[in-house]
Amino acid sequence: METQNYPIGIQTFSKIIEGDFTYVDKTAILGTLVKREGYYFLSRPRRFGKSLLLSTFHAYFNGERELFKGLALDKADVDWTPNPVLHFDFNSAVFDQEDGLRLLLNKFLLEFETTYGIIPGSDSRENIPQRFRDIIRFVYEKTQRKVVILIDEYDKPLLGIEENKELFEKNQSLLKGFFGNLKSMDRYIRFAFITGVARFNKVSIFSDLNNLNDISMTDEFADICGWTERELCDTFMPGIEALARKRKESVEKTIESLRGYYDGYRFTSEGSRLYNPFSVLNALFSLRIRPYWFATGTPTFLVNRIKSNGILLTSLNNQWCREAELLECGMNSRNPVPLLFQTGYLTIMDYDDETGRYKLGFPNYEVEHSFNYYLLRAYIPETEEPDSPFRMDLFQMDLVEGRPEGFMNRLATLLKQMPYENHNEKSYQNLVYLLCRLSGTEAQLEHHSYIGRSDMEVRTRRFIYIFEFKYNRSVEEAMLQIYDRDYAGRYALDSRIVYLIGANFSDKAPNRGLTGYKIEKIKRIE
The whole model's pTM is what? Predict the structure, then answer.
């Protein structure tokens, strides 16, 4: 039986090849880019293979042809003459300190100066952009070969410090001057490739770099990171078969499960559906299909923006956006949808050629679960106590076993433990939705009927729950709306038991939180 060696967490191309790790060959796409040369930018979510991509470029421009034996690039008509490579990797540092970015750039430049025997002049020693320009020119003059510049996760010094406006603007200014060298030193540069999660608008970072070719939403390079299902099956079939045996099911059923959890990313209107490599590797290694991507963390500013702006969660799914909105993402925008697309929480589901708009949605179960989990933790404190009354399974059992009073009482107690800053009607609605969705039940916000829409409906195998929420009003008003608009009418022929739940939330002391609720059970005729 064939065994496979999975490169989990390994982002160095040479280590994967020399360590005999299983590798999905993406080098044909690299060959196309290196023959065209130029300056490129690629936006992809975290843990999607961007660092490995740059490491592969690095090995090629170093002339390490032996590493590519048997791969597509080895057979391509490309120039294998080495070029000097300046590789900047922003993954390994923390940038919430005042001089974190400057210190890291200084470290990179010092390494290049040591390698090539460069002594910075006294007038440029503290001038990071000037030192970078001097290094590019000196390396070219010394080697008589044009320089290759690789920059991985350029936006890491900005993501995560958005609320520190002074530091954000300082790092932004330093990066703008730093990247501006790629244009002013063009005659010394053969190739440049920049990766990141977000594409900051041109006036902030790339305004001086108008020769940058953004291939993030280009059909030709849509598959440059991530795996198609064909690549997955062709490369990892032994691992998929082992997973199927562990799950005691057919290979086809296992592939269907992998698809539901990890597939579904699309970055162009015509692009293939792609799997998240990080999650697939973890699933095949552990022989368990479960969410892995959420463990890599969710940008705090995204969570805070959704929470503070009173955005209804289900309004984020099935959003329509123009391409310009998806590519030009300003950090100060109230609309989180473009950044949710760039960070991988939303992906392209459809495209309307007539209007030039993209329809966005969650790519798969893993991403939706990750998104909902971190949003819930923004509302309520996490507890690891085994007897905590706020465990997800207890909320779930209340709904599955037909105990709406238990669910509402548990919710009321939970709300009393929470801070009340930035709470509004939508935040309470989102919180109840997240509790239901993450407990494994089928939940839907603002469910439309022929004469109105209920705030939320939850369906289990034996029960249906129809919720109407009010804010600083009354429970009676909520129940009256349920009856007046006949929200339960659509279930007249459904055999399940229907519970109608009216609830009122308030931000007024001393009765903040859930101030009251009423539950009525609709009896069915057998």
Answer: 0.83
